[in-house]
Amino acid sequence: MAALRAGLLGVGMMGRHHARVLREVEGVELVAIADPGGDPHGVAGPLTVLPDLDALIAEGVDMVVVAVPTQFHEKAALTLAEAGVHALVEKPIAHSIEAGKRMTRAFADRGLVGAVGHVERFNPALQELRRRLAEGDLGDVYQIATRRQSGFPTRIADVGVAKDLASHDIDLTAWVAQSDYASVFAQTTFKSGRSHEDMIAVTGRLESGVIVNHLVNWLSPMKERVTVVTGERGAFVADTATGDLTFYANGTIPLEWESVSSFRGVSEGDVTRFSFAKREPLRVEHEVFRDAVLGEKNDLVTFEQGLRTLTVVEAALDSARTGTSVSL
């Protein structure tokens, strides 16, 4: 069977990684690249860098990865839908809920695959975490807390930290817990002199009753990518920067050392860091997109799911503006 002909729109900081992976995925051939800004990272290789999406489509592509700034997602997606081309659009799905709805309808009406690049779902630590939660290793889940902190990315100017980074945490939390958000309350700060927020703290509750908390910012001197799931039998800690998953079990042996037990709270049990295969998340994401285009079984992050995540992000931003909790 002939390989799927893939195109890439945008070869910036994220696009360069897509270019590399598209060349590595079996059953896919990267045949065209387009970016009006040229090829700053030198990833085109033998391919000519085309000036726009129309030129890309003219190359006869079956699928396109859209890795341009968020404000351009809708126009690119609608153009691809009109041309009958499947698309993987980087997160968030769009700059607004209405834009996301138009994209979702366009692809659904034409029977096309529309995927959103919420790549954290394919992180090995989170995939292993979800599997263990589904098997009941933690018992009842009480709380999911995430921390996503790092320095300021000057290249991102069209959205704030909520849409760029918190969207990861909101998507992965609902996916890991298999439950949608019921309500959110958020606070933001604006320290970088721009109109978009650079720090957000979100608390909320899922429809399942699980309490959630997200601390996200572009104002930290260290990089942190951590998800903590606390439940009946202990706590899982997933570090998505390293792909590690650790389980802190509640203890069954009473502590007799009074000076220790007095401040430990829940009795301390075994601590286990699991060993499992760790494949690159972006590669797995591309394989899933390929399988979806081929009509095979897959775990795609659909446009519908990406739109739901954006709806929660917008609700959090509304909460921060109004100082009130928002129900979803």
UniProtKB/TrEMBL annotation:
Keywords: NAD. The keyword NAD applies. Residues 127-236 form the GFO/IDH/MocA-like oxidoreductase domain. The keyword Transferase does not apply. InterPro entries: Gfo/Idh/MocA-like_OxRdtase_N, Gfo/Idh/MocA_Oxidoreductases, GFO_IDH_MocA-like_dom, NAD(P)-bd_dom_sf. Residues 5-118 form the Gfo/Idh/MocA-like oxidoreductase N-terminal domain. This is Gfo/Idh/MocA family oxidoreductase. It comes from Agromyces atrinae. The lineage of its organism: Bacteria, Bacillati, Actinomycetota, Actinomycetes, Micrococcales.
